[in-house]
Amino acid sequence: MQKHSVPRYEPTRFSTQTNWLRIVLGLALGTCLLACANQDKAQHSQGTPAKQKAEANIVEVASGRSISRGELLQLMRKSDFVLLGEKHDNPNHHIERGALLRELGPSPVIIAEHLPSSAQLRPKPSDELLNELNKAGFAAKQWQWPVHQPLFAGVAQAGQSLQGGNISRDLARQLAREGRAAMPTDLLSLTEAAPLAPVAQAALEADLIEGHCGQLPSARLAGMIWAQRARDAAMAQRMIQAYEQGAKPAVLVAGNGHVRRDYGVPQLLQKQLRQSRLLSVGFLEPDAPSAGAPYDYVWISAAPGRDDPCAGFLMPTNSK
Fold first, then answer.
1. Going by DSSP bridges, is the β-strand pair 297-300/57-60 parallel, antiparallel, or unpaired?
2. CA distances (Å), 177 to each of 170, 180, 216, 265, 268, in order?
3. What's 109's domain CATH number?
4. 164 has which bridge partners?
5. Which residues, in sequence order, are CB contacts of 264 under 8 Å at separation 6+?
6. Are 259 and 265 a contacting pair, CB within 8 Å?
7. Which of 1, 116, 188, 293 is the most exposed place for a label (fewest CB within 10 A)?
8. Tell me, what's the pLDDT at 314?
9. How far apart are CA 251 and CA 243, in angstroms?
């Protein structure tokens, strides 16, 4: 990719003026949210993960210039908040992020979408990794273990603290049915302090509909949005707590929808800590355009083999 003569990106300091694998069968409506439905609804290929490239394909969104993996690591070390996205069924994304986290050393605190917000552990690099995760609330079948093993192995090898960031399934279901009325007070406060811009609201709505293969009824869209915003607020809340307790940096690992600057966790963080340094990296595949992507950087990796995620898909009923 052609390099452009533009200033090198530095983690953003906010000013006062700035701004899921198809839905898992057997789960109720509330768990079928954008970060899962839109990014992990495809079935994970059981073949060997695609071979990683010798050189990482990392692009700065604002300029279109390529940067090295070493440069990205430097930016991560200088940030207060780092958000690393994923397509949940892409093993390359987990290999790449696990290696990045390992090189950061023990000082970061890792917040994971894959664990409930009550989870807190310091996993050991051993054959007991999955057992440790399961005890903390990790749903191995839902997340198609061992696809995420390289990610959590990197955390364990670095000796990092691992914390959960997600809301419970029961709360997600309730939010999908009842909307705002079911929102916990602390999460509601975070979201109401950071209302979405009209363009961001429209993007979220479109992505939720697409993530449900176009079958999401309009009457259920509002509840889905509240559930999505609650997930983002819970993850933002955990990141802020880790930052205030000295995490260097606080790192989120979550689906790409959660690390978007327009409607994801960064949009909430920027309203709470305007002067913080934040770095968002979307982990994409070659068919996804990088120009104008809602991240600071995109890391482009080979896609695994997939069947059509919408073939035979039927929207679950809104059971109580």
1. antiparallel
2. 11, 10, 13, 23, 23
3. 3.40.50.11550
4. 112
5. 83, 232, 257, 258, 280, 294
6. yes
7. 1
8. 81
9. 9
Domain span including residue 192: 50-300
User: What's the DSSP call for residue 84?
Assistant: E
Place of tokens 């509002």: 222
Q: What is the pTM of this model?
A: 0.84
Question: Given the structure tokens 């978007």, which residue do they identify?
Answer: 260
Alpha helices for the chain (secondary structure H): 34-40, 69-77, 91-104, 129-135, 149-158, 169-178, 185-192, 198-211, 218-244, 265-272
Distance CA 306, CA 77 (A): 35
User: Do you know the residue count of the chain?
Assistant: 320
User: What is the token pair recorded at 231?
Assistant: 């997930």
Residue 114 has phi, psi (to 5 degrees) of -75, -5
CB distance 281 to 83 below 8 Å: yes
What are the 10-residue block averages of pLDDT along the chain, 320 residues in total? 37 39 36 42 37 71 97 98 97 98 97 98 96 98 97 98 97 96 98 97 96 90 97 98 97 98 98 95 96 97 92 72
Instruction: Tell me the pLDDT tens digit for each residue of 219-278.
Output: 999 999 999 999 999 999 999 999 999 999 999 999 999 999 999 999 999 999 989 999
For 50, the token pair is 């695609």
Structural domain contains residue 219: yes
Burial category of 69 from C-beta neighbours within 10 Å (exposed 0-12, middle 13-18, buried 19 and up): middle
How many domains does the chain fold into? 1
Task: Check residue 318 and give its pLDDT.
Answer: 61
Which region, left, alpha or beta, applies to residue 179 given φ > 0 means left and ψ of -120 to 50 means alpha? left
Q: Is 300 helix (H, G, I), strand (E, B) or coil?
A: strand
